[in-house]
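Hi support team,

I submitted a single chain yesterday and got back a structure, but I'm not sure I'm reading the token output correctly. Could someone confirm the output below corresponds to the sequence I sent? I've pasted both exactly as they appear in my results page.

Thanks,
R.
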Amino acid sequence: MRTLPVGQYIPGRSFLHQLDARAKLPCLFLLMATVIGASSPWGYALVLAVLALLVLVSRLPLRAAVAPLRGLFWFLLVVFLMNALFFGGEEVLASWWIFRLSQEGIRQGFRVVSNLLLILILGNLLAMTTLPTQVTAALASLIKPLKFIGVPTEDVAMIISIALQFIPTFLEETELIRMAQIVRGARFESKKLLERAASFIPLVVPVFI
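Hi R., thanks for writing in. Yes, this is the structure output for that exact sequence:
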């Protein structure tokens, strides 16, 4: 089955594709701020409703929108456990050595994981409906007032644009290396945690070296 792209522009003629990037970026930042500031189920329900509407308006397959979540289970599990076991709180459910599992920690873990998931999907949705050149131009336009205090806005926008364009390439190379390691016998899907962790060593080394 063909792997859906992550962070890559997908051509389209939807309203979201044609919307000016100078309007998309502030809306994205506003939605991200709303996600971070959400403190109740109603807040998350509102963000989810807006996100679902954006996916419908973009006319992109749902699988493409949630593609960044693929393979993040273990990372998100670690994030959840770090919060659940170290956040603290008065209602302690269990404790051992330096670990204290509390209801507040569990709630915080769910909150942080939910925030990460929503922000990843929002960022991916922007990348899939906006050309990198449009993002660069929009950033340069939005931060242009900073030029009056000596900030090289064009350079900043270009650096961010190059970073954004590098992400899909990085992910593609990582996937190619992962497939090559699977052919050589790496067991990324093993149920044994140590065996699975050891399989990531030959993946990480070629990616960063």
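A quick pointer for reading it: The first strand starts at residue 92 and ends at 96. Let us know if anything else looks off.

Best,
Support desk
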